[in-house]
Amino acid sequence: MTALESFITDMPKVELHIHIEGSLMPAMMFDLSKRNNVTLPYTSVAEIEAAYNFSNLQDFLDLYYQGMSVLHTEQDFYDLTSAYLKKSAEQNVRHTEIFFDPQGHTERGIAFETVLNGITRALEDGKKNLGITSLLIMCFLRHLSEDSAFATLEQALLYKEKIIGVGLDSSENGHPPSKFTRVFAKAREEGFLIVAHAGEEGPPEYVHEALDLLKVDRIDHGNRSLEDDALTARLAKEGIGLTVCPLSNLKLCGVKDMRDHPLKKMIELGLMATVNSDDPAYFGGYMTENYLDVAKALNLSRDDIVTLAGNSIGVSFASDARKAELREDFQKYVA
Ligand code: HPA
Ligand code: ZN
């Protein structure tokens, strides 16, 4: 291992873009399909793994929704979240901000409360037993209607103290942020922080809409912002965090080769870019692998890695007190 690889491996990390349903590893998917009598079109873990070849976001989403259909009980959501936290602790993740997709479950008859209780119980245990702090962000599925998003927001209002923010994910093209202007206005009024996936596959215009109409506090992905110089300058000037996911971009063919990834350019342009795993079970890596692969391909320096990891603390939604702790730990490590 090179010195930079050890530095990355041992570094205390903050994750800001992880879909908990995307951390469902093939082995657990297989076990839960048996536990819950869900028929999957696979007869082995190897067959599941072999199916993970994607040409674009929709290819992935089709398997992602199929995969999450094995999650039924509160215990399933507890086990899923616990496994992600255990792996994250092994990779020195100290704080994580986790997305969940309630509509992916309520649409197939699983109660919002079942999902939320399983996840939050695991997060509490993760804090106690592993020292990982966490926050939960609820995403609306953008391929569904505004009405469905409003109904989901109504449910979240019953559990406001457990959910820090609201986001937007699923099929980007054809489902611009403007489709959800009113529901995000209501979410803001209710005190939720706001994020949205934008510029992953969709055009820079969707990033403008996320900023101007949804009034996001961070952009998830944001890669295609770089096609618009004025937008890029605005993101830099306003210090808007971009939660970038290198292995996801590679697997979903946003970049043909990791050497084409825009992360280095983002750093040079002064954008608040961060490194994240997105859907680690589907894209071949958790936090450490994302850092290692992109650092190698782009020949990133130790200073670049320090900048990226510092950005993650800076644009996180943790309290000022927790941010100060994370920063102090990180600075000790760097020194
Ligand atoms: N983009 C959009 N929707 C998603 C993603 C993503 O990267 N991961 C899970 N749902
Ligand atoms: Zn994502």
Largest sheet: 8 strands, parallel
Structural class: alpha/beta
Give the CATH class.
Alpha Beta
Please give the domain count. 1
Overall strand count: 8
Looking at the overall shape, the CATH architecture is Alpha-Beta Barrel
Q: What order do the SSEs take from the amino end to the carboxyl end, as H and E?
A: HEHHHHEHHEHEHEHEHEHHEHHHH
Strand order of the largest sheet: 1-2-3-4-5-6-7-8
Discrete helix count = 17
Shape estimate: globular
Average residue-wise pLDDT: 98
Ligands, ions, cofactors:
hypoxanthine, zinc ion
Description:
With 335 residues, this protein is of the alpha/beta class. The protein has a single domain (3-24, 70-334), classed as TIM Barrel (Alpha-Beta Barrel), CATH 3.20.20. The chain has 17 helices and eight strands. It has helices spanning 3-10, 26-35, 45-50, 57-68, 74-90, 103-106, 112-130, 146-157, 181-189, 204-214, 229-238, 246-251, 263-268, 280-283, 287-298, 302-314, 320-334; strands at residues 13-19, 93-100, 133-141, 165-169, 193-198, 218-221, 241-244, 272-275. Strands 1-2-3-4-5-6-7-8 form an eight-stranded parallel β-sheet. Helix 11 (229-238) links the parallel strand 6 and strand 7 (241-244). The longest helix has 19 residues, at 112-130. 48% of the residues are buried. Zinc ion binds at residues 17, 19, 169, 197, 220, 278. Zinc ion (ZN) is lined by residues 17, 19, 169, 197, 220, 278.
